[in-house]
Amino acid sequence: MGFFGLFEVPVVAAPMAGGASTPELAAEVNRAGGLGFLACGYAAPEDMTAGIRATRSVTDRPFGVNLFVPGQDTADAKAVAAYAERIAPEAERLGADLGDSDWHDHDFPAKLAALTDDPVAVVGFTFGCPRPADIRALRRAGSTVLITVTTAGEARAAAEAGADALVVQGMEAGGHQGSFEDTYERTTPLLDLLAEVRAAVDTPLIAAGGIADPAGARRMLSAGATAVQLGTTFLRAPESGASQTHKDALADPLFTGTAVTRAFSGRRARGLVNRFLRTHDGIAPGAYPQVHHLTGPLRAAAARAGDADSLHLWAGTGYRSAAERPAAEIVADLAAVV
Predict the structure, then answer these.
(1) N or C: which end of the chain has fewer CB within 10 A?
(2) Does the keyword Lipid biosynthesis apply (predicted)?
(3) Domain shared by 228 and 284, yes or no
(4) pLDDT (tens digit, 9 = 90+) per residue, 193-203?
């Protein structure tokens, strides 16, 4: 089928981790002619395969699975322990314990093996570039391989490794910055980054970050993108698995902007500015996924309690576009003009 045959409408659903991505959301995007995605970065191999089965049960169209490329365990254990001590009162206030802060790779090799044994149409990677041998194995199994990039240098490395297409993520994107290394904040606007990457590689490009309406999608397609990737726009859809606390915050006038922070996960990510972010931003160590696991029970308790000021409210700069509408309608509106 090839990359260009995977969708009728040039809209790709972002594989939003943390529960927002669901089989139903992927199916709704597919129903409107886009390309649905299932986020499996944190999933255990058996949960990933169960999610794939569930997605196949609700759509007969191609869809993708996204994985996180594990980095090295270079975190400062003392800094992680100090951060745990700092945020312990936050967890206690919510009646939660802090999670274990151990490093692990989320069973990355086992998930790769499962995807070569039972392939899906697309496999995407974030936080790095997999080994060329792994890319070749997935392609031999019949999968198209996408890699998220945030610089022209990352784009060249991904193209040389054998990626079929690149997700070019601008600074406007919500959630984690998909950079290969979290050494500095990515601040290049998507339109500028798209031009830089186009000049560096010949690989098809998917534009991602802050695309909130048909006009924004048209700009990116006119600038050379093959498709656009939407994430935040789908968060309030009924098919989204985002918590109700998160969904409500996106429309709450009390939240007036976004910022990039390590406070919730130890890796730079863009979310709505709330009390937790303001209080702990700039203090959390660069320790991913250690801090992510450390704060996990705290964040889950905040979602259950409806405490939006203690929750990771991942959102791109176009978050006001998120509407309480079926995902298929959102894609259809874009399809009518792009």
Answers:
(1) N
(2) no
(3) no
(4) 999 999 999 99
